[in-house]
Design goal:
Number of strands of chain A: 7
CATH topology of the largest domain in chain B: FAD/NAD(P)-binding domain
Largest sheet of chain A: 5 strands, mixed
Number of helices of chain B: 10
Structural class of chain A: mainly beta
Largest interface: A-B, 5 and 6 residues
Structural class of chain B: alpha/beta
Strand order of the largest sheet of chain A: 2-1-7-5-6
Distance between the termini of chain B: 43 Å
CATH topology of chain A: Ubiquitin-like (UB roll)
Largest sheet of chain B: 8 strands, mixed
CATH class of chain A: Alpha Beta
Strand content of chain B: 25-35%
Number of domains of chain B: 2
Order of helices and strands of chain A: EEHEEEEE
Number of strands of chain B: 19
Number of domains of chain A: 1
CATH superfamily of the largest domain in chain B: FAD/NAD(P)-binding domain
Order of helices and strands of chain B: EHEHEHEHEHEEHEEEEEHEEHEEHEEEH
CATH superfamily of chain A: Beta-grasp domain
Oligomer: heterodimer
Radius of gyration of chain A: 13 Å
Helix content of chain B: 25-40%
CATH class of the largest domain in chain B: Alpha Beta
């Protein structure tokens, strides 16, 4: 059977940049694959990124379709989704 | 100096802290005792709204005086006190409430407090997340917010800089004539200030102070969601009436971008557990005024106990039944605001300076006749 290659088949917008991702990907995985390191910033301005990837640590929060503080690790990408990270403080 | 302080302040909540600060500044040797740690009780549970209120002329006099003292102190407060001069908007739902807003404006301006009536369009521009169709608001621009436990600590530190001593984890068991008893320790002094807040009546029998429970909810950070402390005009009725329970719309923007959502009032003794039905009512009330709050994540809910008196005014002054005893307690939901006025008033009375406002309405002697809390 061989390994299955998942082709990127939908498009999301990350900080104004269009990227192609495979259906079924979590937003956190998509952001990691895209090279995002600062998902959000702490109250003192430090960059933060996912720790647990299972919804517990809340470090992966991003703004999705204008809704702030959504956990990227628990959210599956949807075609046309807009994701805003804290790459810019 | 611990053996013979001039004044022992019982309770390092924000009221005790303000008393200690004012007494130390007046040159007295002050010892502050707290059963836990400074700012840990009702002070830590409060919203930190520095607000001028006009439920009675005496309340207006004390809150306005305290507001002036906070404004003067603000530049000297450490950053972590998070003092923000955001102002208050008293929101009117209908024409009847708008008429009350106009009366409130007259009362404030007659007392020298700047206040401006906002039209529905001005209100919508000032706070776009309020629901459409509101009648207007009163903007009291000099009101502010602080982070109360840190403010209490800052006041204690100012007292310490003037020679005061803070001892935490010291539970006072009894107050006698010119003395305080804590465990096996007996501390003599010229005067004792009972600033034990909602617990004040446990140390001085005859004080009609009971705990009035409140809930607060804090959200995650949504910077810019609102810009003023927002309070419905009906809040005064909720605060004034000693009904079993009431809620009012009261939302505060924190310096962190978080939103603090209140408020509730219940008379249930010392039960600190969260009452989910009243939290639901409180949040529904908030959502009614700000539908966009529905998207916000609440991250913590807690309760606290306001020290309530029968006539909604604090007790500030000598307690004539016990030589050397002074009371500074019973500030209900206004203790953060009125702490500074209370401290200065009490210090003036103790050292014999003419006070800036008439102390008569706050004299504890008014309740010695034994009026109960109703």
């Amino acid at each position: 059977m061989g390994s299955r290659v998942v082709e990127p088949d939908l498009e999301i917008v990350v900080d104004d940049e269009r990227i192609r991702v495979a259906a079924g990907t979590t937003v956190a995985a998509a952001l990691f694959n895209h090279g995002v390191s600062a998902f959000r910033r702490s109250v003192s301005g430090e960059p933060r990124s996912p720790v647990c990837c299972m919804g517990v640590c809340f470090e992966c929060r991003v703004t999705i379709d204008s809704r702030p503080h959504v956990r990227a690790c628990l959210t599956t990408v949807v075609d046309g989704m807009h994701v805003q990270t804290a790459t810019e403080p | 100096m611990t053996r013979h302080p001039d004044a022992v302040v019982v309770g390092a909540g924000i009221v005790g802290a303000a008393c200690a600060e004012a007494l130390a500044r007046a040159g007295m040797k002050v010892l502050v005792l707290d059963a836990s740690f400074a700012g840990s009780g009702t002070t830590a549970a409060g919203m930190g709204h520095l607000v001028v209120m006009d439920d009675s002329p005496a309340q207006l006099a004390l809150t306005a005086y305290s507001g002036e003292l906070w404004a003067a102190l603000a530049p000297e407060l450490p950053r972590n006190v998070e003092h923000v001069s955001c102002g208050t908007l008293w929101v009117a739902e209908d024409e009847e409430q708008l008429e009350a807003v106009r009366q409130k404006q007259h009362a404030y301006m007659a007392h020298g407090v700047a206040a401006e009536t906002l039209s529905p369009a001005q209100l919508a521009a000032a706070e776009p997340h309020l629901r459409p169709g509101l009648a207007g608001a009163l903007c009291v621009q000099d009101d502010a917010v602080i982070y109360p436990p840190v403010a209490a600590l800052a006041l204690v530190r100012r007292a310490v800089a003037n020679g005061a001593q803070l001892r935490e984890g010291v539970r006072v068991d009894a107050i006698g004539a010119h003395e305080v008893i804590a465990g096996s320790e007996r501390i003599s002094c010229d005067c004792v200030i009972n600033a034990a807040g909602a617990h004040a009546a446990e140390l001085t029998s005859g004080i009609p102070i009971i705990p009035r429970k409140g809930h607060l909810v804090i959200t995650d950070r949504y910077p810019g969601f609102c810009h003023h402390q927002l309070v419905e005009l009906g809040y005064l009725a909720s605060a004034h009436t000693m009904t079993t329970e009431s809620v009012a719309f009261n939302v505060q923007p924190r310096a962190t971008g978080q939103l603090l959502i209140g408020s509730s009032r219940e008379l249930v003794g010392w039960d600190a557990t969260i009452n989910h039905s009243i939290v639901r009512r409180m949040l529904d009330r908030a959502l009614d005024f700000m539908p966009g709050l529905a998207l916000a994540s609440a991250i913590r809910t807690w309760t606290g106990f306001r020290p309530a008196t029968p006539d909604k005014l604090p007790l500030i002054g000598a307690w004539e039944d016990t030589p050397g005893l002074w009371i500074a307690a019973g500030h209900e939901g206004l203790g953060i605001t009125t702490s500074l006025g209370t401290g200065q008033l009490l210090a003036d009375l103790i050292v014999g300076h003419p006070p800036a406002i008439d102390p008569a309405p706050y004299m504890p002697s008014r309740v010695l006749a034994g009026a109960g809390v109703h």
